[in-house]
Amino acid sequence: MIGTIVNAGAIIGGCLVGLVVKERLTENISTTIMNGLALCILYIGMSGALKGQDTLQIIICIAIGALIGEVIDIDKKIKNLGDFIEEKISNKKNKKAQDNISVSEGFVTASLLFCIGAMAVVGSLESGLHGNHATLFAKSILDGVSSIIFTSSLGIGVIFSSIAILIYQGSITLLASSLSTVLSESVISNMSAVGSLLIVGLAFNMLGISKIKVANLLPAIFIPIIFGLF
């Protein structure tokens, strides 16, 4: 769990720096930074999506994942959690909806970006199976820097994504021994490809091109595991 704890700590540290920097940034600068970061995220997503080994399987995973996600409505539940956190930390019952959305957006956007991807899965497996935390340490640096930029633009909601990291990566680390036989190279590759497509959707949302409910597509990331059983 050391790698995951360091990862969460890096995000918290980056967020604290971002809160300090935020006060010194104008709205135009924040907007430009977010647009630039969105383009970088789009590049990362497209690069990862092209590494998938089975296009048909990826399409099926997205379709099934979307169905499950919409039935559960993960997007709404995560946003409600963000709103709940905002209400608790603000201690104000009559807050504007826009403030709630801001915290929800920061929490959801950062959580999705930090949890989706091959480094989160592979790094957690290496940490749990071999005690090798190198991948998660490298990821910690990337997430820490990203959290500075996200927090300076999206606010305090980003810091709560560290909780999502602890739960998501921590669970994989603790279950690594039982998951190792299922998560073959091809399964991880397809999981990464599906996750990368979700990152593309996240980038489109950040650029204002679309309003994709990326959270409702999250189950798609785990569907390749089912294919790996057969």
TrEMBL record:
The chain crosses the membrane at residues 6-21, 33-50, 56-74, 101-125, 145-167, 187-206. PANTHER family: INNER MEMBRANE PROTEIN (PTHR36111:SF2), INNER MEMBRANE PROTEIN-RELATED (PTHR36111). It comes from Clostridium saccharobutylicum DSM 13864. InterPro entries: DUF554. Keywords: Membrane, Transmembrane, Transmembrane helix. This is Membrane protein YdfK.
